Amino acid sequence: MAVVWFRLRAVGRQRWRAWLALALLVGLGGGIVLGALAGARRTDSAYGRFLKEVNAFDVALAGVDLEAVRRLPQVADVAGNDFLLMEKEGDDRRFDLSPLLPAGDGMYERINGLKVLKGRRPDPSRADEVSISRIGAETYGLGVGDVVVMKAFAPDQLEAVLGGEPPSPAGPRFMFRVVGIDATPTEFLPTSPNPATIHLTPAFGRTHGHEVAAIPGLAIKLKAGGADVDPFKREVERITGEAGVQFITGGLTTSREAIENETLPAFLFYYDRYPGYGFWAAIERSTGDFLGWFHFRPGDGHSDDEPELGYRLRRSAWGKGIATEGCRALIDKGFAEHGVQRVLAETLVVHTASRRVMEKSGLRLIRVFHADWPYRIPGDEHGDVEYALTRAEWEGQAR
To answer: Which residues partner with 298 through β-bridges?
Structure first.
């Protein structure tokens, strides 16, 4: 199944076209993104749980008859979200920082919540307060307390913007104070064309919404999640009269640009926030070949000194002891150098090879459980297992 599919229009440059979100973003609520980002390894569970925690949308859509979409039989819930046409003053990266305005009380509340990483959420009654996505903060060097100036396109410029190379903005100039940095589901999607985002408040919409060109959109939860994607797609094509929606990923290899600009920054985020944790490449010494990667990072719902251990290796590296060697090295590094108190790892009950790696690395079985995953994979009906190794146990093994 494709993770992202778009209804495109001939509106000029590719980046501008992508920013407008004349599109359907599919797969977030169903956890499909986890497979694209982390190779579909069950131990990379944090992102799947994050999607469920924020109640990520199944489909995001703009540029069509939204009232007709609301009435489609597959739709369970919707939240309005307007795409405001602005660009950051004094920066030649046009449209790479996009302001999003919740339309109503559903967006960021019932659907697609914002996970605050630093600072706080904007005060809904303040028109000048915003939060910025993690990617936006990194790209533009912005932090809590900084001021960002945006120039707006006037409402009467909308057709000119959609019709080709955008003109210079003729609308008002706004100064916003960044009060928070947050994480949203779409910014961790490797194939997503979404740029960095600024999240505005309802107060801005009431006070200044009429002064800015905007494209109304919807974030949508489908009744049957991923199972409703195809019938929903057909209904949207019926409404728009346009068949043959283009699939951007559809099983194709993720582009180098997407890896460089989105996947790797998401990985490197752990280095900035958690010194000593992150991702490690596995390289064959004799040939220099890339064999895969390991991660050693804080586990979801656990303290910073209880990292989760995981890995993904190419098939050619299986059965050679590489997984065990890498896991042992990271475990030793964590306990010896970074004050780790307990190492955790999870896999499926039926993944006997992964369980053997955990056991040979010194971890012991803690529990068998059935996780409430936002997606299904073969074998998960038998449950999951959690392994762990405490500092005291590691010290005992070392003696």
So the answer is: 307
Reported as a single tens digit per residue, the pLDDT across 28-79 is 333 222 222 223 333 344 556 667 778 877 777 776 678 888 999 999 999 9
Cβ neighbours of residue 194 under 8 Å, at least 6 residues apart? 18, 19, 21, 25, 98, 186, 187
**CA–CA separation, 176 vs 212, rounded Å?**
15
Alpha-carbon span 29 to 375, nearest angstrom: 9
Interatomic CA distance for residues 46 and 51, integer angstroms: 9
Strands (DSSP E) along the chain, which ranges? 4-6, 23-26, 59-62, 75-84, 86-88, 97-103, 115-119, 129-133, 147-152, 173-183, 196-199, 214-222, 246-247, 278-283, 290-298, 307-313, 342-348, 364-369, 384-390
Residues sharing a CB contact under 8 Å with residue 100, sequence separation 6 or more, in sequence order? 81, 82, 83, 84, 197, 198, 199, 200
> Which among 28, 45, 13, 25 has a CA at the least distance from the CA of 380?
45
Contact in structure between 327 and 357 (CB atoms under 8 Å) = yes
Residue 284 phi, psi (nearest 5): -70, 120
Residue 134 contacts residue 181 (beta carbons within 8 Å): yes
Cα 45 from Cα 34, distance rounded (Å): 8
Q: What average pLDDT does the segment 280-308 reach? A: 83
User: What domains are defined for the chain?
Assistant: 4-247 (no CATH), 274-398 (3.40.630.30)
Six token digits for residue 177: 């104070």
Among 145, 137, 130, smallest CA distance to 84 is for: 130
pLDDT tens readout for residues 116-165: 889 999 999 999 999 998 878 888 889 999 999 999 999 998 877 765 56
Q: Please provide residue 304's backbone torsions phi and psi, each rounded to the nearest 5 degrees.
A: -65, -20
Length of the chain as a residue count: 399
